[in-house]
Amino acid sequence: MTAPAVITGLGVASPNGLGKGAYWAATLGCQSGIGRITRFDPARYPARLAGEIDDFQAEEHLPPRLLPQTDRMTRLALVATDWALEDAGITPGSLPEFDMGVITASSSGGFEFGQRELQKLWSQGGQHVSAYQSFAWFYAVNSGQISIRNGMKGPSSVLVSDQAGGLDALAQARRQIRKGTPLIVSGSIDASICTWGWVAQITSGRLSTHLDPARAYLPFDRGAAGHVPGEGGAILVVEDEAAARRRNATVYGSIAGYGATFDPKPGRARAPGLRKAMELSLADARLDPGAIDVVFADAAAIPELDRIEAEAIGQVFGPRGVPVTAPKTMTGRLYSGAAPLDVAAALLSMRDGVIPPTANVVALADYGLDLVTAQPRRAPVRAAMILARGYGGFNSALVVRAPN
Amino acid sequence: MTNEDFTFDDLKRILLVSAGFDDSIPLDGSMLDADFAELGYDSVALLETWRRIELERRIAIDDSTAAGARTPRALLAIVNAHLPTVEGSASRGAGSTIAGATS
């Protein structure tokens, strides 16, 4: 396989920690970022908890020029990109602009911006709608703004497959690196905690209506009854390994394998596609299941989806055959931002030899999972599998390996 | 205020909210004759700026006229030429009709 893709920079924006260090410390400390929504009054809605990032002031990080034209998710993505590039030791202006691409994922686009402008459209008229509405709410806007801000003119796109998109984007980044682009900014940030975004999410029927932050999002638990949404994610710098070595970059790990499947139509006899995606990712990585030291679960917290995931893990790895964790129990589900954040956590697990915990959960014995709960577990991590499922039947699995 | 001249200060104020400023650009008379592109304002930023001017002054300027303004000085000239007179004479047509609707 030519040009292995390695990850050299992490930029994290998570409800339980802004920045890589703050996120990782909170996650190992089992500190949750889930609470009652503050961005709007949630009293009229059945679901009232979210993982909000409450310490982000865009104007402290971005020039005034960008503020009128950006949704919250774009501001977070631009700042996370700055951090990821800094972490990687990359100064974008010093590299040829066509040697750098941007491939992110999105699940909803810039909902908060869109809501504000649509409200103006219907209450005041079309003249009152910002010209920036023409792009600020698009799925592709984060890729575009990251590209413009950093002068990156290489292959750029956006992947839209709900929560699975975060892994699909990283796989697409690897494809472009194999085709010859030395550097791709990838990963994803999602944020749509506004009333319009909220009612859209409620229609999935998958949101938890519990009011206690410690009991609201309990994947694989007897009390599983939906998820808590969150905002944020991670931006990752993905590089051609040879290029990274040439500049003596610190390598977190490599993207070793990837598999993606669709579920069959409801009612069909065919099995769900998650197991197949996992097997495809292992085959792509040329690894046996025994080489995987931890699985970062999708962790839907819908009993049927939990069962499907637990069964797939059991079929691939055997009963209690691999440590499983879901640190997203401390952030809520971040949609397309979730899996890149899990990839960042997996890479930090490798660096530090520790598996982060799943918060608040007592795993149902029936599932046969070795779920890491309550506190982190010391263990060498050489390879990790990250799972992500998107609403509508998307399944993706990614394998990352520690640097040699 | 509808009938007052549209000044350089008015333009700077609107540019600030519609598109922001780069720290490197001095906000003085020296920018009056600079090309908007040199000042860092792209076509969407200018569209947003024109939209806000039209709303604030209750005037309508057709897109091709607006697109012809390459500098702040040219933009000011176009806006002021479209402002209704204080007397609001009938010859001002649509402009005075819109302005006349303001309180």
TrEMBL record, chain A:
SMART domains tied to this protein: PKS_KS (SM00825)
CDD domains attached to this UniProt entry: CLF
Domain of life according to the entry: Bacteria
Any one Pfam family match given in the protein's UniProt record, by short name: ketoacyl-synt
Residue ranges of the Ketosynthase family 3 (KS3) domain? 2-402
Does this UniProt record's set of keywords contain Mitochondrion?
no
Keywords from the UniProt entry: Acyltransferase, Transferase
On whether Acyltransferase is a keyword of this UniProt record, the answer is yes
Q: Which PANTHER family match?
A: POLYKETIDE BETA-KETOACYL SYNTHASE 2-RELATED, POLYKETIDE SYNTHASE-RELATED
**Family named by the database record:** Belongs to the thiolase-like superfamily. Beta-ketoacyl-ACP synthases family.
Q: What is this protein called?
A: Ketosynthase chain-length factor
Whose protein is this, by species?
Answer: Pendulispora albinea
From TrEMBL, chain B:
What superkingdom does the record give? Bacteria
Note the Gene3D superfamilies from the entry. Answer: ACP-like
Annotated source species: Pendulispora albinea
Q: Which residues form the Carrier domain?
A: 30-77
Q: What is the lineage of its organism?
A: Bacteria, Pseudomonadati, Myxococcota, Myxococcia, Myxococcales
**Which InterPro entries does the record cross-reference, listed alphabetically?**
ACP-like_sf, PP-bd_ACP
Protein name, UniProt field: Phosphopantetheine-binding protein
Pfam families (UniProt xref) = PP-binding
